């Protein structure tokens, strides 16, 4: 099954953390003749395996995966970097007459791949970034108020609840004199025709899945993984923000017990899932599917529904 046009179309499977996207995508990809392009902002890092729930090597041998394990944890990586890599991967997959299958939970990365988005330049001023991070840590409300003054459009949007994005928006303003929101493409021109599905769960089931997954990561050796990465060298600013890694680093460096770190990972993961769901609801033309508890033990039904949806959509896009 391939697209008959000379312009790549893509399919996508998105969803919040802990919902089982990667597992379902591996089940779906062979019959769709698809290769998976990760849209996960942290699975790009080599060695960050347990905490990012990276798909294992056996599955990656079964189905080709792209944009996983491409840089070391000491390197920073931006949405603009991902946009370039994703478009190269889409073109490569399409040339081999396969379907580009974007899978993950980073909504911004999906949008960077399929929409004509322009990103502000990265700042090399570490002193500026450090000052803004200190401000955010000591007076987050004050930083948000200041950003509201200089970039009210950004402050009114969904990103204003994400302190990492708030810091980035203020960094852009102070380093370029332009607001972060001024880089936003108001027309959202589509570069690649796409068909997209979002998988979700009832909240109690999703939160239980998240908490069980965090417990499983600790049992699988997340603390040891983070300690090994720290021993190899400092994690980059972006890598250090990955769910689980920041909290375990704090524990290793003497700022809290392991119990406190685990509790914080679970809380931060639940909040992140909420933000992901909110983000996905603003992306047009996505079909939502709900995972039921029985699907966790037998994925036949949900996989069948997703396969039928994608097969029909691929025919529509061809």
From TrEMBL:
The record marks 106, 129 as: Interaction with substrate tRNA. Substrate binds at residues 17-22. Its EC number is 2.5.1.75. GO terms for molecular function: ATP binding; tRNA dimethylallyltransferase activity. The keyword ATP-binding applies. InterPro entries: Dimethylallyltransferase, IPT, P-loop_NTPase. Catalyzes the transfer of a dimethylallyl group onto the adenine at position 37 in tRNAs that read codons beginning with uridine, leading to the formation of N6-(dimethylallyl)adenosine (i(6)A). Monomer. Belongs to the IPP transferase family. NCBIfam families: miaA. This is tRNA dimethylallyltransferase. It comes from Candidatus Solincola sediminis.
